[in-house]
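Reading is simple: each integer encodes one residue's backbone shape. An example follows:

___
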Amino acid sequence: MELTPAQSQIVRNNHRFRVVNCGRQFGKTTVAVEEMIACAISKDNLVICYVAPTFQQARDIAWAMLVKRLDPVLIKANETRLELTVKTQFGGESRIMLRGWESVETLRGQKFNFIVIDEVAMMRNFWPGWQEVIRPTLTHTLGSVLFISTPKGFNHFYDLFNTVDKDFQNFHFTTYDNPFASVEEIEAAKRQLPPVRFDQEYMASFHKTEGLVYKEFDRTKHLFDDEQEKKIRSNERIA
């Protein structure tokens, strides 16, 4: 499958932990599926895991696409457990499993070579799940993770996206970065949705959208540190 230029940027990057913040219909599921397949067939005995917020979402989002794309190398598909056994380029086998974050504890103690965590912003209790369960499953294998999501306020995904560490690389793409998306449809959504909602869902911008008394509140415009406040007050006195 041919990837878009934006998707190719993600795939070509070799950082261990890649965090992709993208707008709706950017094509993140395609990236996830292609990366899982490439990893699975690259070596024997690899274990790849795709994690969605719920088990049902994992089925709805990625299962059918994976089965279709894996058809030439698919050995066995267990639809009840959402597990796939595939033939590698060396004639051996690797495994892809799909799981829900609501049961993340079931992954404790396992070993993974590659994990995709989809819709990260929707994950409840993300940090305990990541730090206590997921991250240790990568230690033995030196495994990697692709985190992908559309933002949802300034929650854990915002913090993850802004992680400063040599193993991490972040990416930001909007719905416009998908050349197959209808620009006319995006522009229609822009007219019909509140600006904050459009910015969050299509432009992948971080906004606080819940509980605001002042709807025009903008973090970058209306929040400032002590030094900025001193400058503002000083300028007011001079004026």
